[in-house]
Design a protein that fits this description.
about 425 residues; alpha+beta; OB fold (Dihydrolipoamide Acetyltransferase, E2P); BirA Bifunctional Protein, domain 2; 2 domains; eight-stranded mixed beta sheet; 14 helices; 18 strands; about 35% helix; elongated
């Protein structure tokens, strides 16, 4: 059957093959036999459908193979497509030819197994309908990010993964032996991106990011993917506008290409459509504390960062993502400048998602004051000499510029409505897990 014209399951479920012969290849998703009939659910990348094997409709040896094939056996089938309201998707394949490509061994994954067991078996659990749908959506999200920036005049720019400088705090660095020296895995492409905007002006990147955070929450990964942008001539207002447009564009594309997958995940498509068409509000950190005080009776001391519980309580009062600006400068990274209108705050922002998904995007206008950044690095115990090259960017034709990073897994988890960010990446890496 190697030269056969193959049909995808979706073509059948879309009604394009009714009462016609079709050739399918895929894997057995479910199987049971009863006397002279075998009921099979077959899957391929486009979906699942029922197939029936009746003794007498095909050679005896093929019928016997059908009876003994186990879940995840790979098969090639030929049969007649018939409507059947009782079957998944409303169609059934009445098989006339059954070829086993590989007889699978007993599959180790059955119903009601623990999340940790499923993570141990991740290489096999990727085949589940849930994860298949999530990673289809993830593919759309990643492709859309490239599309968004390229259509808006940005150049893709790659920065090194091995970096000598910290960007987001030294306590979360992964140290790497580098010949006779040591270096670190990237926390962000940002410092290198700031060098590039003086040549390319508008740039973006998609790449792996590493944070050695000793956190065991459902929202943290030690290795994740971040989509970042940086642009010359942009201030804080400009960059938050880009962030809002990007999220709406991502939602638009996912709703265009992945409605079926969203349905499998039980997502409310109308709710996502409403968010996509909405304007996202912008509030200050100070306003956020006022909302928490007035509506949740949570008295957060000004100057403290918002914890997960406080972000979730805040977002209970919004139906769309919200941009929160002007966090206290004392808790911000060294490159986030003071707001001249309110010097105790920084020209920075986070975009928070409703539904308990926390920060999707974090960014800022970039500092231009070498003395201020030097002082802040020294207060952190950093060797300022390591940033000499970075300060050169302020010495030779510096201009206002801004940028942000979008957590791909955070966005995927939010759109898919999944409980744990570990399911938004194929093979999660956390403080407790680095295999398989």
């Amino acid at each position: 059957m190697s030269k056969t014209s193959w049909t995808k399951i979706k073509e059948i479920l879309d009604g394009k093959k009714t009462d016609k012969t079709a050739n399918l290849r895929g894997w057995i998703h479910r199987t049971r036999s009863s006397g002279n009939i075998v009921f099979i659910v077959i899957r391929d990348v486009t979906g699942i459908m029922q197939a029936t094997v009746k003794k007498g409709n095909l050679p005896d040896n093929e019928f016997e193979d059908a009876k003994k094939t186990l879940i995840e056996s790979s098969v090639e089938l030929k049969g007649l497509v018939k409507k059947d309201k009782r079957a998944p998707g409303g169609y059934e394949l009445q098989i006339t030819n059954f070829q086993v490509i590989h007889f699978a061994e007993p599959f180790p994954i059955v119903k009601d197994q623990s999340p940790e067991f499923l993570l141990d078996q991740r290489h096999l659990w990727l085949r589940s309908q849930k994860l298949t749908s999530i990673f289809k959506i993830r593919s759309t999200v990643v492709g859309t990010i490239h599309k968004f920036f390229r259509e808006n005049g940005y150049y893709e720019f790659d920065a090194p993964v091995l970096q000598p400088n910290q960007c987001e705090g030294g306590s979360t660095l992964f140290e790497v032996k580098y010949y006779d020296n040591k270096t670190y895995l990237s926390q962000s492409w940002q410092l290198y991106a700031e060098a590039a905007v003086f040549a390319l002006e508008k740039i973006y990147n998609m790449g792996p990011t590493f944070r050695a955070e000793k956190s065991k929450t459902s929202r943290h990964l030690s290795e994740f993917w971040m989509a970042e942008m940086e642009a010359a001539w942009m201030d804080l207002h400009d960059v938050t506008k880009v962030a809002k447009e990007e999220i709406r564009f991502i939602l638009k594309e996912v709703l265009k290409y992945n409605k079926h997958d969203l349905g499998i995940l039980g997502q409310d498509i109308k709710k996502l459509e409403k968010i996509m068409k909405s304007e996202f509000p912008t509030i200050t950190y100070t306003k956020a504390l006022e909302i928490l005080k007035e509506k949740e009776n949570l008295d957060v001391e000004w100057g403290k960062d918002l914890r997960t519980i406080e972000e979730n309580k805040l977002m209970d009062h919004f139906d769309t993502p919200v941009v929160v600006t002007n966090y206290p400068v004392e808790i911000m990274a060294f490159y986030k400048p003071k707001d001249p209108k309110d010097p105790k705050t920084a020209l920075c922002f986070d975009m928070l998602a409703p539904g308990g998904y926390g920060e999707l995007i974090g960014g800022s206008q970039r500092g231009l004051d070498i003395k201020d950044m030097t002082k802040r690095l020294e207060a952190m115990g950093e060797n300022v000499e390591n940033y000499k090259w970075y300060f050169d960017l302020r010495r030779f034709g510096s201009v206002p510029h801004s940028g942000y990073g979008l957590g791909v897994e955070r966005v995927v988890a939010w759109i898919c409505g999944i409980d744990n960010i570990k399911d938004a990446i194929p093979f999660p890496r956390t403080i407790l897990r680095f295999r398989p």
